Amino acid sequence: MTLNIDSDEDEEEFFKNKPKTKCKICNKEILLISLDFHNKSHSSQILPWLFLGSEQNALDINELNYNNISYILNCGFECEDTSHNNKYSYLKLDIKDLADFDIKKYFNEAHNFINKAKLNSKNILIHCFAGLSRSPSIVISYLMKELKYSYINALNFVKEKRPQIKINIDFLIILKKYENELNEERKFI
Ligand SMILES: [Zn+2]
Q1: Which residues touch 84 (CB under 8 Å, ≥6 apart)?
Q2: Residue 69 backbone dihedrals phi, psi, to 5 degrees
Q3: What does R_g of the chain's alpha carbons equal in angstroms?
Q4: 22 CA distance to ligand 1 centroid (A)?
Q5: Which of 97, 113, 131, 175 could cross-link with 54 by S-S, CB 3.0 to 4.6 Å?
Q6: DSSP codes of every residue in 36-105
């Protein structure tokens, strides 16, 4: 069967009869066939209390409420302020998605902030612009440092929960090196 839509009315007619569902996060009516695609536009739950997403997700009050978020970690240099006038516990790290950017120097500050949410039993959203490279790198570093995941287990764990991630290769190299550093440190504990 070939799909031939040559006017707006035809298009409307075509979509009208397709099964739809309501997204439980944003309440929008979604074509059932595009539900998977639509779900990827929302943040991903990595741990019961830790979510990973985009700037758009951090600006969406419905989504923040749905996930019961109280802490927001903004990892995007160019991202707008997502503190909602200090309604949320908020930290912004000016991380750039560039090959020679030293993301590692932000790890400790990020981990301390994430631990604050954890200690207070609050949910946190960690985001950059698209939630594909910088913020997943921060989450992976957290899993390695605080939950003692290996590099590959942390990467696969996050990929499983958010398959669309696309981490810049230089950040992956930094994370792999970080694993060696953590192993060295742990030898002396
Ligand atoms: Zn939705």
Answers
A1: 61
A2: -80, 135
A3: 19
A4: 8
A5: 131
A6: HHHHTTS-EEEETTEEEE-HHHHH-HHHHHHTTEEEEEE--TTPPP-STTTTSEEEE------TT--GGG
Residue type, 132: L
Give the distance, in angstroms, between the CA of residue 48 and the centroid of all CA atoms in the same chain: 14
List, by residue number, the catalytic residues: 128
In whole angstroms, what is the distance from residue 59 CA to residue 44 CA?
Answer: 15
In one letter, which amino acid is 165? Answer: I
Q: Domain spanning 42-187 has what CATH number?
A: 3.90.190.10
Q: pLDDT tens digits, residue range 23-80? A: 989 888 999 999 989 999 999 999 999 999 999 999 999 999 999 999 999 999 999 9
pTM of the complete model: 0.89
pLDDT band at 188 (very low <50, low <70, confident <90, very high): confident
Domain with CATH 3.90.190.10 in the chain: 42-187
Parallel, antiparallel or unpaired: strands 69-74 and 123-127? parallel
Cα 36 to ligand 1 centroid, rounded to whole Å: 10
